């Protein structure tokens, strides 16, 4: 979204005004590959967590959201090799980011690729929720995989939140600061990903930016009724 681009451009300009050197670079990772590996690991972990909750407290399918059941079933039906390969690829992302931080202190991105979503924008339709519960009950994860739902989830994920997965997957510290505000009065942050152990430096950078362009007094605009 052009507002996400404007957020990064404004942040880069402010950083330069404060004496930082800013350069535009290619991302040190492949968007689609990272999203697929992130979701593969997440679904496998989610399957384990759902199974543990069922065992520990006797939870039933009706106690879980339909999306959770569908993703857990995808994790269950995936071969053991897929999460192992994804974890192996995670090491490649860590190395790529480590190499990047040999030349740069921070990797600057939008926090979101679009303005903040309204409540309900990511809600699965009732028809798909019913289908997800049925496929989970039938343990038909292979059907879900063959349906292309994984690819759809990747594209949906990349559509509005393609940047924060990098820090989550690599275990690197990152911080989002609400420097930019859209014409609708909504904050649209920018993210800084730092090298390993740079937590204090990231907080110092955020403090410098907040002093230069304060945001504590600002509040999101109230949406129109209806």
General form: globular
| Mean residue pLDDT | 87
Computed CA radius of gyration, to the nearest angstrom:
20 Å
Distance between the termini: 25 Å
Could you estimate the helical fraction of the residues in percent? 55-70%
- Quaternary assembly: single chain
Give unreliable regions as ranges.
Answer: none
> Count the strands?
3
Strand content: 5-15%
Order of helices and strands: HHHHEHHHHEEH
Indicate the structural class: mainly alpha
Number of helices: 9
Strand order in the largest sheet: 1-3-2
Instruction: Summarize the biggest pleated sheet.
Output: 3 strands, antiparallel
Explain what the structure shows.
- With 226 residues, the chain is mostly helical.
- The protein contains 9 helices and 3 strands.
- Strands 1-3-2 form a 3-stranded antiparallel beta sheet.
- Strand 2 (174-181) and strand 3 form a beta hairpin.
- The radius of gyration is 20 Å and the shape is globular.
- The mean pLDDT is 87.
Keywords:
single chain; 226 residues; mainly alpha; 3-stranded antiparallel β-sheet
């Amino acid at each position: 979204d052009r507002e996400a681009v404007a957020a990064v451009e404004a942040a880069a300009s402010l950083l330069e005004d404060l004496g930082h050197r800013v350069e535009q670079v290619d991302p040190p990772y492949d968007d689609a590959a990272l999203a697929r590996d992130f979701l593969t690991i997440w679904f496998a972990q989610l399957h384990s967590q759902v199974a543990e909750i069922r065992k520990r407290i006797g939870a039933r399918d009706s106690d879980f959201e339909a999306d959770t059941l569908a993703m857990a079933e995808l994790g269950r039906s995936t071969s053991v090799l897929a999460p192992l390969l994804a974890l192996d690829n995670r090491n490649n992302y860590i190395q790529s980011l480590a190499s990047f931080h040999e030349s740069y202190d921070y990797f600057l991105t939008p926090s979101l690729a679009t303005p903040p979503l309204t409540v309900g924008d990511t809600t699965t339709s009732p028809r798909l929720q019913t289908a997800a519960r049925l496929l989970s009950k039938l343990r038909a994860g292979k059907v879900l995989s063959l349906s292309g739902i994984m690819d759809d989830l990747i594209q949906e994920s990349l559509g509005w939140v393609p940047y924060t997965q990098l820090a989550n997957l690599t275990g690197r510290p990152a911080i989002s600061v609400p420097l930019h505000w859209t014409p609708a009065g909504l904050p649209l942050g920018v993210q800084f990903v730092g090298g390993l152990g740079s937590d204090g430096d990231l907080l110092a950078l955020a403090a410098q930016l907040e002093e230069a362009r304060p945001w504590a007094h600002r509040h999101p605009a109230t949406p129109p009724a209806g």
